[in-house]
Structures are given as structure tokens and as C-alpha cells.
Specification:
- The protein has about 300 residues and is mainly α.
- The chain has one domain: Rhopdopsin 7-helix transmembrane proteins, CATH 1.20.1070.
- The protein contains 10 helices and 3 strands.
- Strands 2-1-3 form a 3-stranded mixed β-sheet.
- Helix 3 runs antiparallel to helix 5, helix 3 packs parallel to helix 7 and helix 7 runs antiparallel to helix 8.
- The radius of gyration is 21 Å and the shape is globular.
- About 35% of the residues are buried.
Length: about 300
């Protein structure tokens, strides 16, 4: 697709007008970013170093942590550079690249949460078939499908954006290159792009969510039917951290993209996007570790090994 754009860069929305506030917010977002990187990296290392956690559920959790690092890095790193240098611009190719990785990692978050819900459904509702249904080969296949589908969706949106013309350098009403704010700056016909946003965007958002809801519609009655002492509590505890992550992620995501036009605004969209691209990836490691005894033990072993090596 040939791009006819004469624009070499875009301006990104500042997170604050006041220079003093910008520096304060820079420190806050930098701390959040570092906590996100450290927390998710610890989750990956803990799962990788503990043989007891080499199960499908923790396999997808480790991949989710990797995706959270990518999602935050694709948006926050550029914002931090812009605040520090006080040049709130992004090149045309940089904008398309950022859009591609943001879409890919954001969609992967939804797909991996759906895969984890399916894993819990099989483990609780069909325990006798769990080792067969969730075999390493099946997990690898699910992982491959998630990466392929999200890459196809992200590449489709990026290529469709590349065919548009941008006649005037304008300010993107966001702190990163999201599809809708960038489309508003185009002087070309964006009908195809808007249709694909509705079709593909709605599909990758709603379908995984429906898979999660359907899984828990079956999981909850199955847990309530458990009569063994402590069995119901143990079964629910394996789902509680996943449910918390789902509620936080989809709550902020729906508020950003499914908000009614009557109450929608650029400020609210930016705040909601900041929640699921910055805050949610930071919270996920805490939710996983604080509400999961196996993760707590794995993290303690990981820190114990580090102390032994350092001594």
C-alpha cells in the first residue's frame, strides 16, 4: 500500500500543561513503569525456576506477564522520553510502529486471559480429562494461535493506516498513537479503517470476554457442587486472582472503548487508557502473588536462591 502522506511527525498530547506538574507526573510514571517491569519479570522468573509451577495455568500467566511488559513499554517509554526532553513529537513511522505493538500486546492480554479462563474451566469442570485437554502440545498450539491472530489484526490496522494521507501536522489527542485519535487527523477517506476498527476491534475485545464469561458460568456451579471439606474454597482460590485481573483489565478497557458518546471525552479516554496500559500491568503481579500461595512460595524460593548465590 503506497502512502501519500506528506507529514513526517505528529504531536502527542501532553500529560499536563504545567511544567512543574509534568516533572511530578514523570517521576510517578517512571516509578510505576519500573515497578511494572520488576514485578512482571519476577513473576516470569519465579514460574520458570519452580518446577511445581510448570503447569498450563502458570504457563499462560508467565506469558501474560511478558505481554504486560510489552504493553506498558510500547506506550509509557515514549511518553517518558517526551516529558524529559520536552519534545512531544513522534515520527510518522514511529507512530505506526507504536500503534502496531500497542494493538498486538493489548489484544494478547485479552486472548491470554481467555486461555487462562478455559484452563480453569477444564481443571474444575473436567478434571479427569485435564492432562489430555491441556497437554503441552495443546498449550503450545493455543499460544501460537494467540500470537498469530493478534499479529494479523495489528498488522491489518497498521497497513490500513499506512495507506491514508495526513496533509497537516496535527496533535494526536492522546499520549500515544491509538487508532481513533490518529484517524481524526487524516485527510483521506477513513471509512474502511473505521469499519475494520468496529469489526476486528469488536471481535478481539468481545469474543475473549465472552469466552471468559462462559467459562465462569460453568465454573461457579461446579464449585458450588463440591462437597469435600475445603474443596470449594481451594477451587475458588485458584480462580480468584484471575477474576481480579479480568475485572480490572476489562473494566478499564470497556470504559475507554465502549463509553457512550454522551459522556465520552478526550480527558476520560486518556485517563481510562492510562489505567489499562500503565496501572493494570503494574497491579497484575501484586494480584497474582498476594492471592496465590503457590506464587508466594515460588517467589520466596527465588529470593532464597539469590541470597545463597550472593553470599
Amino acid at each position: 500500500m503506497e502512502n501519500q502522506s506528506s507529514v513526517s511527525e505528529f504531536f502527542l498530547r501532553r500529560i499536563s500543561v504545567s511544567p512543574e506538574q509534568q516533572q511530578s507526573l514523570f517521576g510517578i510514571f517512571l516509578c510505576i513503569y519500573l515497578v511494572t517491569l520488576t514485578g512482571n519479570l519476577l513473576i516470569i522468573l519465579a514460574i520458570g525456576s519452580d518446577l511445581h509451577l510448570h503447569t498450563p495455568m502458570y504457563f499462560f500467566l508467565a506469558n501474560l506477564s511478558f505481554v504486560d511488559i510489552g504493553l506498558t513499554s510500547s506506550t509509557v517509554s515514549k511518553m517518558l522520553v517526551n516529558v524529559q526532553t520536552r519534545h512531544h513529537t513522534i515520527s510518522y513511522m514511529g507512530c505506526l510502529t507504536q500503534m502496531y505493538f500497542f494493538l498486538m500486546f493489548g489484544d494478547l492480554d485479552s486472548f491470554f486471559l481467555a486461555a487462562m479462563a478455559y484452563d480453569r474451566y477444564v481443571a474444575i469442570c473436567c478434571p479427569l480429562y485435564y492432562s489430555t485437554v491441556m497437554s503441552p502440545q495443546v498449550c503450545a498450539l493455543i499460544l501460537t494461535l494467540c500470537w498469530v491472530l493478534t499479529n494479523v489484526v495489528a498488522l491489518t490496522h497498521t497497513l490500513l493506516m499506512a495507506r491514508l494521507s495526513f496533509c497537516v501536522t496535527g496533535e494526536i489527542a492522546h499520549f500515544f498513537c491509538d487508532i481513533t485519535p490518529v484517524l481524526k487527523l487524516s485527510c483521506s477517506d477513513t471509512h474502511i479503517n473505521e469499519m475494520m476498527v468496529f469489526v476486528l476491534g469488536g471481535t478481539v475485545l468481545i469474543v475473549p470476554f465472552l469466552c471468559i464469561v462462559t467459562s465462569y458460568i460453568h465454573i461457579v456451579p461446579a464449585i458450588l457442587r463440591i462437597r469435600t471439606h475445603g474443596g470449594a474454597g481451594k477451587a475458588f482460590s485458584t480462580c480468584s486472582s484471575h477474576l481480579c485481573i479480568v475485572c480490572v483489565f476489562y473494566g478499564t478497557l470497556f470504559s475507554a472503548y465502549l463509553c457512550p458518546p454522551s459522556i465520552a471525552s478526550e480527558e476520560k479516554d486518556i485517563a481510562a487508557a492510562a489505567m489499562y496500559t500503565i496501572v493494570t500491568p503494574m497491579l497484575n503481579p501484586f494480584i497474582c502473588s498476594l492471592r496465590n500461595k503457590d506464587m508466594k512460595r515460588a517467589l520466596k524460593r527465588l529470593f532464597g536462591q539469590r541470597k545463597i548465590v550472593s553470599s
